[in-house]
Design goal:
Helix content is 87%, strand content 0%. The protein is mainly alpha-helical and 122 residues long.
């Protein structure tokens, strides 16, 4: 499952780089993608990625941290599928509309750091 950690890492590095360098186009593209897919498919993808990260963590140097990331993905996907109190709509609105450009760039920095850490730990 080392390939999955590499795949997630490359995706996070690419997203982080784009969010830092091209904030407005990345935000618009993300908003269109989230709007097109909807709550249930995105929740299912988050659950699947969480489970795959949890399985892939066993072969990593930092298995505990990757297991924690997988657990967070599983919880996030479960919350999006269950959607208590409209949490999906609130989180999408905050992250794609209400958050400032600096906040979006900060999310890109965090994504870039996590992707780089995962590649180095796999």
């Amino acid at each position: 499952m080392d390939w999955f950690i590499w795949l997630i890492s490359v995706f996070w590095i690419a997203f982080g780089s784009l969010a830092i360098l091209y904030t407005a186009p990345t935000r618009e593209t993300s908003a269109k993608m989230v709007e097109r897919l909807g709550r249930v498919p995105l929740g299912g993808v988050a659950v699947a990625f969480g489970v795959l990260l949890m399985v892939a963590s066993r072969g990593s140097v930092q298995a505990g941290f990757i297991l924690f990331l997988g657990l967070l993905g599983l919880i996030k996907g479960g919350l999006f599928l269950w959607n208590p109190g409209g949490i999906y709509e609130k989180s999408v609105h905050w992250s794609l509309v209400a958050a400032s450009d600096q906040t979006y760039r900060f999310m890109g920095i965090v994504s870039l750091i996590l992707g780089t850490a995962l590649i180095s730990w796999s």
